[in-house]
Amino acid sequence: MKAVQYVEIGRAPEVREIPIPEPKPGQVRLRITAAGLCHSDWFVMGLPQSVMGHALPMTLGHEAAGIVDKLGEGVTEFSVGDDVAVYGPWGCGACDECTRGRENYCPNAAKLGIRPPGLGAQGGMAEYMIVDSARHLVSLQGLDPVEFVSLTDAGLTPYHSIKHQLANLPAGSTAVVIGTGGLGHVGIQILRALTPATVIALDVNEEKLAHAREVGAHHVVLSNADAPAAIRALTGGVGADVVFDFVGAAPTLETARASVRIDGAIEVVGIGGGSVPVGYGTVPAGASVRAPFWGSRSELIEVLALARTGQLKVSVERFDIADAPTAYARLHDGSIVGRAVVVP
Ligand code: NAD
Ligand code: ZN
Ligand code: ZN
């Protein structure tokens, strides 16, 4: 089968021919219908071997949807032919967090060497994929896999972050979204669907700002050193109730720090290497900073249900599997508007 693989540290991803994998007891094989590209793939491909800590080659793709193709011994929860999406943050399955469906916060996964598909385990950007357990599968229930596969990360991650802040986003409040790419453009729509907040979107790219407005941002602001003043002006001098930073680099976190209101909150979703100083006088009084990771299985079920109401649309640029390396290059140079999705 064809698979998009990260083969060697520092080398761009490649399309390779590899054997179709067989499911072991408890596992499920999917015939992949769609797989999304995420900026985190580039983060992983930028790590030195000592930090990355898992074997190569690795098939990329942590946003995956497919049709159940073959069941490992003992699997009874799904049938061949079912249309499913993959819940990506795999945990131990046995601890309190995993039992609650919050495998994204499993305290045992790292020490047991359990890694998400495409981020350590073999991923979904291939013709077939092995999913370690049926509990990682969620039925698509009629959603088109190409249009909605990215909700497994670009939807789930902002949904988890926004849900945590719902009490801080009442009528009259303001939410700032920094970075309106894959996660950000879905985040804006989730904010509009779940809250009455005014949404201010920031990006460095004018085309992405126009897109942010199309998907529901009330105001758009160019992301630069003047952005905090623009946010203050739009909020009557008060600042933002919650800043969602989908970039997480030093300059965007400085914007977040400088534009959050007293007793407000900063959600650092992007992994761009920046940090926010927290301590007396460094952030406004009462302000909190949180670094969320992905989301829970129940939140994935919820975000898919929200899409079924028609309130979420992922702007998808579709690529054949042979063109996946081009798609990765385009994601790297910032020219994908919305999400790139590979169709094997
Ligand atoms: P993306 O490339 O699709 O979007 C990033 C956007 O940020 C682009 O529109 C880009 O123009 C914009 N941008 C870049 N520099 C900027 C700046 N200085 N100011 C404002 N905007 C700027 O990326 P993505 O796939 O949406 O991922 C976003 C980030 O979230 C990445 O760092 C990714 O690794 C991370 N991520 C984190 C989690 C988590 O669980 N915490 C999950 C998924 C992705
Ligand atoms: Zn991701
Ligand atoms: Zn666990």
UniProtKB/TrEMBL annotation:
Q: Which InterPro entries match?
A: ADH-like_C, ADH-like_N, ADH_Zn_CS, ER, GroES-like_sf, NAD(P)-bd_dom_sf
| EC number of this enzyme | 1.1.1.1
- Keywords per UniProt: Metal-binding, Oxidoreductase, Zinc
| Record's catalysed reaction(s) | a primary alcohol + NAD(+) = an aldehyde + NADH + H(+); a secondary alcohol + NAD(+) = a ketone + NADH + H(+)
Domain named Enoyl reductase (ER) is located at 10-342
Q: What Gene Ontology terms describe what this protein does at the molecular function level?
A: alcohol dehydrogenase (NAD+) activity; zinc ion binding
User: Which cofactors are named for this entry?
Assistant: Zn(2+)
Pfam families attached to this UniProt entry = ADH_N, ADH_zinc_N
Q: Which PROSITE patterns match?
A: ADH_ZINC (PS00059)
List the PANTHER family hit by this protein, alphabetically: ALCOHOL DEHYDROGENASE 1-RELATED, VACUOLAR PROTEIN SORTING-ASSOCIATED PROTEIN 11
The family classification in the record reads: Belongs to the zinc-containing alcohol dehydrogenase family.
Which protein are we looking at? alcohol dehydrogenase
